[in-house]
Amino acid sequence: MRSQVLGIIWVSVGLLFLLGVAFFSSRWGAARPQPAAVADTDSVILTSQEDSVFRSRYKKHVYQYDKPKYYQRVSEAVDTIRYSHSEPPARRKPLVVELNTADTTTLMLLHGIGPTFAKRIVRYRERLGGFVDKGQLMEVYGFTPELLGHIEPYITINADSIRRICLDTITLKQLIRHPYIEYYQARDIIRLRDRGIRFTTVDDLRAVPSMADSTLQRLLPYIEFAQ
To answer: Which residues span the domain enclosing 67?
Structure first.
């Protein structure tokens, strides 16, 4: 009799356990399947029908949907619209370096110009008084036509920043530092000035015995004539 009672009790416990499992399974259910991850999280391809549904739902439930900032048609053949939640990338302006005011750090932003070339350009620019033509970079030691052609689209020249030579006040030591003037040419200029000759026109410079026409043409942009 006792064993029969125990059997009934165990059967009742088993039934209660099975009923509990069935109750909780029906209440919470199995784990809901997660939507497949979209490969491109920044954009979604919508058909025309889905696009109209998206717009109608957005008007009714503004707080539940993110309004796309812009959209563009992917293809004329396929009636689909690509929505993107990011602004279109801004176009970068090409780098342009002003040759007469740039320091060595700025010059090194040009592709092919390292610290050595940047220092040489600045040193030569200081002796010259500034560049009036891009081709003058060929006068910098080690410069090649290939390098000049490579950086030429990315450099510009402001002629207003050129430092000119005042022949009325410059000394012999300062004059011979200019790369376009030889020592004997500078000496002749100073001698003529000491005799009371003032350099007011190009013809006055032509009166210098050692001044060749080719040198004079290169030198003219850097001369400040007396008034």
So the answer is: 43-84
